[in-house]
Amino acid sequence: MAKAHQPLEEWLASHPLKKPGLFAGEGYSRRAVDEVTDKVVDRLRADRQYADLIRKFDFPTAPRAEAYDRAAVDDLFDNLKWGSDPRK
What we know:
By secondary structure, the chain is mainly alpha-helical. The chain has four helices and three strands. It has helices at residues 8-14, 30-45, 51-54, 70-81, and strands at 26-29, 61-63, 67-68. The chain has a three-stranded antiparallel β-sheet with strand order 2-1-3.
């Protein structure tokens, strides 16, 4: 199945986020980002609103080995917050 036809919640559940670059010291904690993403996926599957989860997020930082790239996470959640499709 092509990703464009995949339901958003399934795409979010399987979409790997970029890790920080080689010279980046830290990024957003993978655990914290994954927790919010899992909650968004659960609400999408239940056909419930998730805006309160992403209205304002403040993820803790983590060392590069345990982190996601900040810009990638910001882009994903900004797309979700403003109703844009992050799959595009």
